[in-house]
Design brief:
heterodimer; A: about 110 residues; mainly beta; 6-stranded mixed beta sheet; 5-stranded antiparallel beta sheet; 11 strands; B: mainly beta; 7-stranded mixed beta sheet; 4-stranded antiparallel beta sheet; about 0% helix; globular
Chain lengths: ~110, ~120
């Protein structure tokens, strides 16, 4: 699959502030997955979005899939230090090939 | 569930030496992936297998890289000869079905340093 672009590349926030990362594709995606990688760790699956306009929530995390299925976002409300890490979106290509986006590195300061 | 198991966790070797990375996928998973992660290039898919058969190796950078999956519970990624630019974290991941909507489960990775 074509690599999706993520913005921003880095984000520093104060604890309690909100955070959003965006993934954009030039082509329509069949679905999109989100992963989190803690510093020094490995990517961990968070969620998958499949339907146009889909919105899913996991506690303070809100995931959206665009109506045209070309973009997606992850929003964290009231960040905590435990949210620190790099967030990746990933899109499937031919077969079950999964291509990861460029990632957004989040740092949360007290 | 033991998760995906990779070994070694760290490998330091000299340029020109052979390096072998090992992976044991989650039992019952049909697909296995090898990724490489660097600051410059992010997470790159090197190769993946479905039911022990290599499906796409277009991400393998050079002939120096080879991967095998002799059975459903074991895979290796070999670099021969290794070069300093191969220094990276290599992740193995597995998924339950050979379909494009199955989440990946990653191992802890092998941090390779080639001097």
């Amino acid at each position: 699959g074509q690599q999706v672009m993520q913005i921003p590349q880095y984000q520093h926030v104060q604890e309690g502030e909100d955070f959003t990362t965006y993934c954009n594709s030039s082509t329509t995606l069949s679905n999109i997955q989100w992963y989190k990688q803690r510093p020094g760790g490995h990517p961990v699956f968070l969620i998958q979005l499949v339907k146009s306009g889909e919105v899913k929530k996991q506690k303070r995390l809100t995931f959206q899939f665009g109506e045209a299925k070309k973009n997606s976002s992850l929003h964290i409300t009231a960040t905590q230090t435990t949210d620190v890490g790099t967030y990746f979106c990933a899109n499937p290509g031919g077969g079950n090939k999964l291509t990861f986006g460029t990632g957004t590195q989040l740092k949360v300061e007290l | 569930d033991a998760g995906v198991i990779q070994s070694p966790r760290h490998e330091v070797t000299e340029m020109g030496q052979e390096v072998t990375l090992r992976c044991k996928p989650i039992s019952g998973h049909n697909s296995l992936f090898w990724y490489r992660q660097t600051m410059m290039r992010g997470l790159e898919l090197l190769i993946y297998f479905n039911n022990n058969v290599p499906i796409d190796d277009s991400g393998m950078p050079e002939d120096r890289f080879s991967a095998k999956m002799p059975n459903a519970s074991f895979s290796t990624l070999k670099i021969q000869p290794s070069e300093p630019r191969d220094s990276a974290v290599y992740f193995c991941a597995s998924s339950g079905t050979p379909r494009g909507n199955s989440p990946l489960h990653f191992g802890n990775g092998t941090r390779l340093t080639v001097t």
